[in-house]
Amino acid sequence: MTGFLDLASLDRTLLYLTAFLGAFVVALWISLAFWAARDIRARTQDRMARLLAPLVVVLLGPPGMVVYLLLRPSRTMEEAYQHTLEEEALLSEVEERPVCPACGGRIERDWQVCAHCHTRLRKSCAQCSRLLELPWQVCPYCGTAVSPSRVEIEAPDFEVRPRGA
After folding, report:
1. CB-based contacts of 97: which residues, under 8 Å, 6+ apart?
2. pLDDT, tens digit, 9 for 90 and up, residues 96-141
3. Chain-centre distance for alpha carbon 64
4. Are the C-beta atoms of residues 153 and 143 closer than 8 Å to each other?
5. N or C: which end of the chain has fewer CB within 10 A?
6. 8 Å CB contact between 132 and 146
7. Taking a C-beta distance cutoff of 8 angstroms, is the pair 139, 130 a contact?
8. Contacts of 102 by beta carbon, 8 Å cutoff, 6+ apart
9. One-character DSSP codes across the chain
């Protein structure tokens, strides 16, 4: 009597499942090696690293992928470049912003007086009204000679008002 389970068909089914599983593991292994090769190209210019990364994955399989993930550079070259650009932009912004020589507070380029400590920062030309640096003796914009007056030497008086007024 042939039973519901035939040993030959069960053996054949297990053979097909094993072959399918083996093919899947081989395909996964190869795809991990290709992924590692592509990933390392985006992360470094080093030829040795570009050769060793997929080789480790091919030789060790999925555990090699874990080793690669632990040892690979944390940023891609594009991310490192973007990070460098951001740092340079921040540094140039900090360097561009002038500070008051007296109190160190941030000032604007067109301020004549520091809003924080009332230190005189610039003077205006009597002829063209453009802002001049305090030590300048001649206006570079109109050529008018600038002589320091008593008003320019002394700090101007400011009226202090309450915040609500």
Report:
1. 106
2. 778 888 898 888 888 889 998 988 888 888 889 898 888 888 999 9
3. 31
4. no
5. N
6. yes
7. yes
8. 114, 117, 119
9. ---SS-HHHHHHHHHHHHHHHHHHHHHHHHHHHHHHHHHHHHH---HHHHHHHHHHHHHH-HHHHHHHHHHS-SS-HHHHHHHHHHHHHHHHHHHHS-B-TTT--B--TT-SB-TTT--B-EEE-TTT--EEETT-SB-TTT--B----HHHHSPPP-----TT-
94 residue type, one letter: V
Residue 164 identity (one-letter amino acid)? G
* C-alpha torsion sign, points 37, 43, 48, 49: negative
